[in-house]
Design brief:
By secondary structure, the chain is mostly helical. It folds into 2 domains: about 180 residues, no CATH class; about 35 residues. Helix content is about 75%, strand content about 0%. The protein is built from 9 helices and no strands. Helix 4 runs antiparallel to helix 6 and helix 6 packs antiparallel against helix 7. The longest helix is centred in the middle third of the chain and has 32 residues. The chain starts with a helix and ends with a helix.
Length: about 220
């Protein structure tokens, strides 16, 4: 949570260069917080709560992979579904709070000023509602697999659309001072190659851990 708060401070400073410059020249230590930014706390809470909703979805999915303990599988699915619905409803409230904390010009992007942003916002809401409905039905059926997977897919598309919405908002904030399409760029092998190596290594590690957890070997099962 602390890292997310620092990251939210950095992101809100990034999209407001004037505020960043004022803070930097007042104190160049790099320890400046952006506490005066109206969207800081709504943005931060929106990210934290969204992460909790995604975690709840994975708890529900855990019930699909548990084949030995039927009672645990059902409990995980129902518990994850309840948490997901709770956090998603809270997310709607935080989303509205974040929206109204934006300057009027930026808020108008999602109210019809930008067709793409407005459509993506509407699709995100519809998909998240669909995820809630499918997961709630899955929690009360004997064959939940298809509904849980459908709910997960809806959630993934919601995350993708919301990421694009944040990209649109960031571009709108920076448009007077910065245009990504015209910005100079160069390939930095000393940075990108270690990043890619660590990324692949991390993904392989997560895959190995997930495989060990969800599909334990016969030796580990017999040991239990």
């Amino acid at each position: 949570a602390g890292v997310a708060f620092i990251y939210s401070n950095e992101m809100t400073l990034m999209v407001t260069p004037g505020r960043w410059a004022t803070a930097y020249f007042a104190d160049s230590s790099g320890l400046n917080l952006n506490l005066g930014e109206p969207m800081l706390f709504p943005r931060y809470l929106h990210f934290i709560n969204g992460a909790m909703a995604v975690a709840a979805m994975f708890v529900a999915m855990l019930g699909l992979f548990e084949k030995r303990e039927k009672w645990f599988a059902k409990e995980a699915l129902q518990y994850g579904a309840r948490l997901f619905m709770t956090f998603t409803f809270i997310q709607y409230l935080l989303g509205v709070l974040w929206l109204i904390s934006l300057p009027q010009k930026m808020m108008a992007l999602f109210m019809g000023r930008s067709i793409l942003a407005s459509i993506l916002l509407l699709l995100s809401i519809v998909l998240s509602v669909g995820a809630i409905l499918m997961l709630s039905k899955a929690a009360n059926t004997e064959r939940p697999t298809r509904r849980v997977i459908s709910s997960m897919i809806s959630l993934l598309f919601t995350i993708v659309f919301m990421a694009k919405l944040r990209d649109i908002l960031r571009d709108a904030y920076l448009s007077p001072n910065f245009n990504l399409e015209t910005a100079p760029s160069s390939f930095q092998a000393s940075t990108i190659i270690p990043f890619l190596i660590l990324l692949v290594g991390g993904l392989l590690t997560v895959f190995w851990m997930a495989n060990k957890f969800f599909f334990p070997s016969s030796e580990s099962q017999s040991a239990k």
